[in-house]
Amino acid sequence: MQTLVVKYGGSVSEEHTFLLEEIAYYARNDVHVVVVHGGGPEVTQWLSRLGHATEFAKGQRITDELALQVVEMVLSGRVGKRIVRQLQKYGVRALSLCGEDAGMVRAVPYENGLLGYVGQVEMVDVRLLCSLLADRYVPVIAPLGVDANGQVYNINADFVAASLAGALRADAFVLATDVAGVREHANSQHTLEQLTEEEAISMVEDGRAIGGMIPKLQAVVHAVQSGAKAAYVLDGRMADALHSVMEGRSIGTRIIPTGIMKGGVEHA
Ligand SMILES: Nc1ncnc2c1ncn2[C@@H]1O[C@H](COP(=O)(O)OP(=O)(O)O)[C@@H](O)[C@H]1O
Ligand SMILES: CC(=O)N[C@@H](CCC(=O)OP(=O)(O)O)C(=O)O
């Protein structure tokens, strides 16, 4: 049975339904699918309604107490449930959880609390996910985690998705966003078809990737280093994006584990 982990970016808005339709298609056709969602733009909107300014550092939200509360409410509540409703409309049994549930995501403060209540993944426990997948549920996960003392943290969804993809030994890890893939540099028109782990790291270090692309590149590297067989950054608003991944057609940017240069998802 193949396993697919899809990070559904907040930049892929509700009106783009292809991705969720394709997720449901594979879930109905014997693929284990886990969805991890973002929702950053919606969190920013709610914070601004509350008169609260938003600041990002290296693609991550600087998170004070109010921002943390809004992240919890918006992601675990509104965004997660909306995705569940949509998936159920497409005929699969979906349920929304967050990284806190069943100790799924254990977090520690990101760089010793540099960004407030931003966490980084310390470890993941995928036992609940495995049971749910075996029972044909589609888990939809909000990117929160807790530490040993029960403190909750806001974690960038790319990182949560990557850690789960690695632990589940995903056949494909897909980061769905609002650009065609990783471009040569932030302002370039040229999307790279493939990237090695080393190239992805150097793009972060030398500034060719900025803002939201920084956590994505770090995440895909982590995913392939921790067990995912292939990782993609692609445009989640496009029809057939997942079909292309699953059928081995060229799509977005494929990050290849060092030493493995081959195309597509292997079919069992
Ligand atoms: N080298 C690059 N290639 C592609 N996109 C880049 C690059 N550097 C920065 N970006 C930016 O990263 C954004 C994607 O990150 P983000 O907005 O956080 O998406 P999401 O909400 O899906 O996580 C793109 O819209 C683009 O503006
Ligand atoms: C620490 C951090 O940056 N957390 C993110 C979590 C949501 C997210 O990752 O949303 P997107 O995938 O839509 O960007 C945030 O607060 O925006």
From TrEMBL:
Pathway: Amino-acid biosynthesis; L-arginine biosynthesis; N(2)-acetyl-L-ornithine from L-glutamate: step 2/4. Pfam families: AA_kinase (PF00696). Residues 3-234 form the Aspartate/glutamate/uridylate kinase domain. The lineage of its organism: Bacteria, Bacillati, Bacillota, Bacilli, Bacillales. The keyword Oxidoreductase does not apply. GO terms for biological process: L-arginine biosynthetic process via ornithine. The gene is argB. HAMAP family: ArgB. Transmembrane segments: none annotated. NCBIfam families: argB. Substrate binds at G39, G40, R61, N154. It comes from Sulfoacidibacillus thermotolerans. GO terms for cellular component: cytoplasm. InterPro entries: AceGlu_kinase-like_sf, AcgluKinase_fam, ArgB, Asp/Glu/Uridylate_kinase, Glu/AcGlu_kinase. GO terms for molecular function: acetylglutamate kinase activity; ATP binding. Keywords: Amino-acid biosynthesis, Arginine biosynthesis, ATP-binding, Cytoplasm, Kinase, Nucleotide-binding, Transferase. PANTHER family: N-ACETYLGLUTAMATE SYNTHASE, N-ACETYLGLUTAMATE SYNTHASE, MITOCHONDRIAL. The keyword Kinase applies. Catalyzes the ATP-dependent phosphorylation of N-acetyl-L-glutamate. The record marks K7, K216 as: Transition state stabilizer. It is found in: Cytoplasm. Its main location: cytoplasm. Belongs to the acetylglutamate kinase family. ArgB subfamily. Its EC number is 2.7.2.8. It catalyses: N-acetyl-L-glutamate + ATP = N-acetyl-L-glutamyl 5-phosphate + ADP. This is Acetylglutamate kinase.
